[in-house]
Amino acid sequence: MKKKLMLLVFFIFTILTNAQNIKGINGDTNWLNMWTNFNPKTANYNEASIIINGVISTNMTLKKENVYVLVGTVYVAPNVTLTIQPGTLIRCDTDTLTTLVVTKGAKIIAEGTETDPIIFTSNKDSGDRNPGDWGGIIILGDAPINKIGGVGTLDFELDPHKALYGGDNKDSDSGILKYVRIEFSGKRTSANKPINGLSLAGVGSKTKLEYIQVTSSDEDSFQFYGGYVNANNLVSVRSADDDFDFTQGVQCNLSNSIAIRSPFLSDSYGSRCFEMETVDTRKGEVLDGKKEMTRVNATNITMMHTEDIGTETEGLKHEAILIRENTFLTLTNSVISGFSHLIIFSDNVTISDDYLAKINLKDLLVNDTKIIGTTQNTDYNSFISNWYQGKQYGIEFIKLKNDQLFASSSMKKKPDFRIKS
């Protein structure tokens, strides 16, 4: 009896251990099914009949039975809530710099369902849509950021009186984005500055962010400017720049999310799944040493290329992760597949035991990736590579094709990017 009990305890322990060590995106079912669209260029969307522009100054509800078109920069004013019903389609004008801005103190309640997602997309016809057709969605909150004075504005040609973000409220609530698709964002301002698919600036921890897909953005898919953010089940597909960009001292918990890159898409500075910094010294930003540094805790992340490495894409694939100075990253139980390097550090980072200890890569499955780590302007750094090959990090290196690694890797139909059991 005692022996049977011990075996039962061991069996349960083994199950729990294996469950805790599932790598990459996961779930009992394929959570990418039904609500996502990996080929929205040719989707057939109904024509818009209701125009929204200017400032939304009173509470408004967008209803599923209507199709809306946003024109120009649309602001949700402070103390106003914009509610969007499940299944609502919002087309975005391509002749103007169409952008939805949820101002500091406002809320957006966009809570779709798995069978009825909310869609923000280009107003162009099927087959004519392209990255950069319209701006994107910007949410401004009053959570702390790392900027001198504690308040910032985004350089997207916004009304300066409506563009402020940052404050002292870590737990602020800017609303809900759930089961939402954002397609063909990234239009450029007159100063040639592209807008992210979803910009989260000074957003607080009570804001609910889950099941959001950004596809074919001509800039970052998701950018986090400070704040205290919890997010899960985010999907970035074929962004021209970074998939997830973290800056201005954001404190972010990110889980069960995926970045799907194309080797044929990149900007002039290089594009990565994760890019991390606390301030952008290239733009002359100054670090506030009394405030939080950028710190990301990411688990069950999948970073992958849509094409297996071959002669046609060999020189087009970049690093999965870019780390700039004054940042902290913990990445666990994740899959990185099909990159030139796992990680690259900017030249202004002093590589040392102390600094690498801040960048904790643990229990990863690294597939078809040629080099572990380096610094900018070099191809290989033995100190970095040897560091992350230590047994304490538990990083496994393999070489498989996408269809051998993932349950279903074809983007022509509904893919399943959980790893094969």
Question: What key attributes describe this structure?
Answer:
single chain, 421 residues, mainly beta, 26-stranded parallel beta sheet, two-stranded antiparallel sheet, disordered N terminus, T9SS C-terminal target domain-containing protein, signal
Task: Summarize the topology.
Layout: H1 2-20, E1 50-56, E2 60-62, E3 67-76, E4 81-84, E5 89-92, E6 99-102, E7 107-111, E8 118-122, E9 136-140, E10 152-153, E11 164-165, E12 175-183, E13 198-201, E14 208-215, E15 222-225, E16 228-237, E17 244-247, E18 251-261, E19 274-276, E20 294-305, E21 319-323, E22 327-332, E23 335-337, E24 341-345, H2 353-356, E25 359-362, E26 365-367, E27 371-375, H3 382-388, E28 396-398, H4 402-405, E29 406-408, E30 416-419
Parallel strand pairs: 1-3, 2-4, 3-5, 3-6, 4-7, 5-8, 6-9, 7-12, 8-12, 9-13, 12-14, 13-15, 14-16, 15-17, 16-18, 17-19, 18-20, 19-21, 20-22, 20-23, 21-24, 22-25, 23-26, 24-27, 26-28
Antiparallel strand pairs: 10-11, 29-30
Keywords: Signal
Signal peptide: 1-19
Protein name: T9SS C-terminal target domain-containing protein
Short description:
By secondary structure, the protein is mainly β. It has 4 helices and 30 strands.
How many individual β-strands?
30
- Taken from the alpha-carbon principal axes, the silhouette is globular
* Percent in strands: 35-45%
End-to-end distance, in Å? 33 Å
Keywords: Signal
Organism: Flavobacterium cutihirudinis
Protein name: T9SS C-terminal target domain-containing protein
Signal peptide: 1-19
Describe the protein.
Helices cover about 10% and strands about 35% of the residues. The longest helix has 19 residues, at about 1-20. It has one domain (about 1-420). Strand 29 and strand 30 (about 415-420) form a beta hairpin. The chain has four helices and 30 strands. The strands form three sheets. It has a 26-stranded parallel sheet that branches. It has a two-stranded antiparallel sheet with strand order 10-11. Residues about 1-20 and about 310-315 have low confidence and may be disordered. The chain has about 425 residues and is mainly beta.
